[in-house]
Write a structure and sequence with these properties.
Order of helices and strands: HEEEEEEEEEEEEEHHHEE
Number of domains: 1
Helix content: 10-25%
Radius of gyration: 18 Å
Length: 313
Amino acid sequence: MPRFAPVSAFALAAALAVALPLTLAPRTSQAQAVAVSITVPPPALPVYAQPVIPGPGYIWTPGYWAWGPYGYYWVPGTWVLPPAVGLLWTPGYWAWADGRYFWHAGYWGPTVGFYGGINYGFGYFGVGFVGGHWDHDRFFYNRAVNNFGHVHITNVYNAPVHNGAVTRVSFNGGRGGTNARPTAAEQAAAQERHADPTSVQAQHERAASQNRAFQASVNHGRPAIGATAHPANFAGAGVVHTHNAATPSGGAPHNAPHQAAAPAHAAPPRAQGAGGPHGAPGGQPHGGPEHGGPEHGGGGGDHGGGGHDHGHP
């Protein structure tokens, strides 16, 4: 099993830029531990576009519903630096079991594991990750599902994904949830050594938990902000508004164009290619009142989305 060595964000960015080999041994994650159990299902995933990548080396982490003292709250998707070269992000997910919804925290590891079959979009279409891959100490981005804007990203390949059934379901199992089960490869990935979410990710979630506008009890499961280019930054440049935001005080919601989801089940090609500075953003699931799906539901009328706050990334 590959071993990795701790590295600071600055050192990692520098290493990714000059392709220095790094090794690291992250501590074992609590990813498989159940952090909270709730009787109310999480709201549907909001519809939003991916913000432009800040620069080379960043990996996309999709938004999710967390739980805290005031119920569910939205944690916007964002770009982050991985804790070490060679690590990929497995998103957390809610799962129904024994009459409750349990949160399974996300983690970093050499392989993307099971995340409930949830279609988070932008490469995380329910199985694996098709937004990019490591080739030794360099991360290559799939142009089809990443938004490069005018940022110069040289490690690029193009692996189009195929449009299919789209969904905003935010939990696994139970009535209205996904029916995905771990594959043998995903079960093997769960046994690998993992690294917990970085301090930047923890700060990002904490900042979201302290923002009343992200609480489902306030936004009715339709937060105004879907994603941000920079963790814990919820205003100004890089912030992306949702397509299906709740209308505040009778005013018109601020809608950002969303990207069509494209569920993909094939792994990205290992061949590398040089890419230009522009990329086509990809895949957040359609949904919401205009795309079918109730305000607190993501595929079936089972999603209540009460209002309360905090989960563990």
